[in-house]
Amino acid sequence: MNEYTNERAKKELEEQSLIYFMEVYKNVTGESIKLIAKAERPDFICVTGNEIKIGIELTEVRRGHPYKLK
What we know:
The two termini are 20 Å apart. A three-stranded antiparallel β-sheet has the order 1-2-3, with helices on one face. The protein is of the alpha+beta class. It is 39% helix and 21% strand.
């Protein structure tokens, strides 16, 4: 894969994670959030049910040293 393909795949995975997060957020808080823009920092701009804009930055937690070769 080239760099463009890797970034596109990463963004698609982030979007899937966002959808999951939005469902869980609504179940936990009773409030819904709606995606209004895709960005890079933060990854997504959303708006709450009471029209407050929020930024959502997704991160990945990994074990071990990030540069250690397997």
